Amino acid sequence: MADQLASIILLADSLNSENLTEKIAKHLNKYPIGLIYLDIKRFGEMEKKHGQIACRKLLQVWKQLIIEAEMAGSFGLLTHRMFGDDVLLFVRTEQGDANWVKTVLLRLAHEIRTIFGKQLNESMVLSGDSIELYTGTAVLDPSTGRTAENLLYDAIKEAIHEARSKTDAEFRRLQMEFRDILAWHKITAHYQPIVSLSTGSIYGYEALARDPQESYFATPNRLWEFAEKENQLYALEKVTRQRAIEGFLSSDSNWKLFINLNANVIHDPQFTPGQTLAFLEKMNLTPQNVVFEITERQSIDDYASFTKALDHYRKQGYRIAIDDAGAGYSSLQAIAELRPDYIKIDRSIIHHIDRDKIKEILLETLVVFAQKINCQIIAEGIETFEELEIVRRLGVHFGQGYLLGRPHPELQPVSDAVIEWMQRHSSTV
Asked: pTM, whole model, 2 decimals?
C-alpha cells in the first residue's frame, strides 16, 4: 500500500502544474516538515453497505473539510494530497528538530482525527455508521542531507506503516474485548414498551442489547458487525437472546417479548436451531411469548434457506416481525417471502408524519395492506403527540417510541401523561 500510494503521488504530480516534490523542497529549508496520513476506517465495507453514491458524497464532504482547513491555515497545513479516502497532510514547522516535530505531530494528529471525525459524523452522509479515522505520522528532516524526493517517498511509507501498525494492534485489542464479552456475557438487555394504540395498555417489549458505555462496542451496530467478521454471529445472538429472556420478568403472561434476529445468523457455522426453548422454560415462558424481529437493513441473500429456518421457529409457536419496513428497498420482498405476523414501520416514515401528507398516505396504504394479509402494524419512533394522533387515526395497531417509553433495564409502564391523552382521544379512534 505504501509503495503503491507513493508511486501514484509521483505519477500524478508529474502531470500537475506544480510538482509536489518541488513544493515540499521550497519549504524544506531550516526546519523539518511534518506529514500526517489519514484514512477512513473500514471504507470498503461502508461502500458495500451503503453503495458508491453515498460513499462518493462522503468523500466530497471529506475533501471539502481538508480544503477549508488548508485555506484557513488550520493546523499549519502547507498542502495536501487526497487519493480516495486516503489523505496526506503536510504541516509546516518553524522550530525544533525532527524529534520535537514528531512529538508535536502525534498530538496534532490526535486533534485532527477528533475534529475531522466529528465533522464527518455530523454530516450524516452515512446514517447508522460511526465514521472513524486511522492516523500515521512522519517527519521530512532536511538535516539528513537527502533529497526532497527521497524524504517524501520514505515519509509516506513511514506514516502509512504507523497507521497500519496501530490498526493491527487495535484490532487485536478489539478481538480480546469481544471474546471477553461473549465469555462473560457482558451484555445487558434494555426493554422498550410496545403499546396498544386503542387501549394504551402494554402489548409487549422489544429487547435491545447494550454493552458498557465506555466500550467501543457500546454502539450495537459495531457489536453485530464485528461478530459477523469473526464468524460469531450466532454466539453473540445466543448471549443477547439469553439476556433478553432472563430479564423479561413479565407480570402478564400475554405480553410479547420482541427479540432481534439477525438475518445472516443462519450462515454462521455455529448455528443450530432449538437453543432458545430451554431459556424460555427456565423463565416460565413459552414460544408464544416471543416475536422474532428480522431487520430490513440486513439483506437476505437466500430466502429459501432463511424461510426454512423461520419455519422451524414458527412450528414451535414463535411469531415473526419485519423490522424497519420503509427504511430501504427490500421491505416488500421480505414481506412477500416471509409472510410476517407484524410489520414494524421505520421511524423515517413516522417522523413528522403530522406535517407530511405523503408519509400519511403511505402509512394509510400499509395499514390497508396489512389488514388484507392478516398482519398487524407497529409504528416505531413515535416521539410527539401529533405523530401519535396521526398513527392512531389511521388505524395502526401498536406503537413504540420515546413518547411511549424509553429503553430501560427494567420493564417500565406507559407514562400517565400518555394514558391520559389516549383516554381523552379515545372517541377519535
From this structure: 0.71
